[in-house]
Amino acid sequence: MHISDGLLSPLICGLMYAVSAAFLVWSWKKAKATYSRSLTPILAVSSAFVFAAQMINFPIPYGTSGHLVGGTFLAVVLGPYAAILSMTIVLLIQALFFADGGIFAFGANVFNMAIIGGLSFFLIKILTKNFTKKNWLLPSIFAASWLSVVLGALACALQIGFSPAFSEVGGIAVTVPAMLFWHVIIGVGEAAITTTVVSQLGRIQPTVLNGLALVRRAQNEGLP
Amino acid sequence: MKGYLKPLILILVFLAILIPFASEAPDGLERVVETFGIEEHEPLWNGLMPDYTLPAISNSYASTFLAGVFGTFLVLAMSYIMGIAITKKEAKPHE
Asked: Does B5 contact chain A (CB < 8 Å)?
């Protein structure tokens, strides 16, 4: 889902840089108030895992592929604020060193993957609040990770659809259905991988699931 | 440092095993761009390792794997630094 340069108009690039920058400042401030130093190793290792996992494209039908984005995975492990920031680092390294995602499109890519991915944390929080049985956790993570890819694709479809490159072929009227068609399928892969990895981590090393601890603590203390 | 070794080895083994199986097909967005025949411009910046390969290495498996190792360590180092910046040092408990 990494947008390369040339697909977005300068206006959309600038707008998405501004929106993403606002979210990053918010995440940074919230992170400083939330986390203690013991998060650092988990943050570093989980970001490195997401980078590696994004290299492995899985095939989907009709000659297309997808790969894990990992936003919801990071949100479960790190909580929303560190998830947004560490996904931004993954995207930055990809854009600078691997030309995966454009430099001008960086703001849009941060919004579509890091911010939407990190914010999927709050969907898990809402779902687990309403369905308090313990076995609702994994279905909630499945739903949140699927939705994070579909919403990211929708945002991407709007950004490219409102840009001149796609205006001749029909703009958002064609980009939205086309992007959603593929990412509804790719999202299932995202959800399957995220749910599997989280449930295994929960079994082997439950202490690393800091994001979940944040959810539980918020529920117990009734914090926002 | 010890805590990093095991997960890092796991990540690199994961890469080493799965790289040959990774799909070469276009991803969702690339597919949409192709479907509508949008011309992709020559990018302004090609990166040092375009398309996750080291141009100097001809064996495609080794080239991709080494690019992956390089990227994994870069992300690890940068997110570690950020981790220090966004977290508070725990207060030492009095004993």
From this structure: no
Model pTM score: 0.93
For the record, the structure tokens of A160 come out as 């490219």
Looking at residue A49, the DSSP 8-state letter turns out to be: H
* CB within 8 Å: A58 and B41: no
CB contact under 8 A, A66 and B27: yes
Letter string b/e over residues A198-220, b meaning 16 or more CB atoms within 10 A of that residue's CB = beebbeeeeebbbbbebbeeeee
Nearest chain B residue (CA) to A69? B27
Cβ-based neighbour number of residue A185 at 10 Å: 16
Write down the ipTM of this complex. Answer: 0.91
Interchain pair B89, A39: CB under 8 A: no
Q: Convert the pLDDT of each residue in A77-102 to its tens digit.
A: 999 999 999 999 999 999 999 999 99
Helices (H), chain A: 10-34, 40-54, 71-78, 80-98, 106-109, 116-130, 137-161, 164-167, 172-204, 210-221
Is B71 within 8 Å of A98 (Cβ atoms)? yes
User: In chain A, which residues have their Cβ closer than 8 Å to the Cβ of B38?
Assistant: 7, 165-166, 169
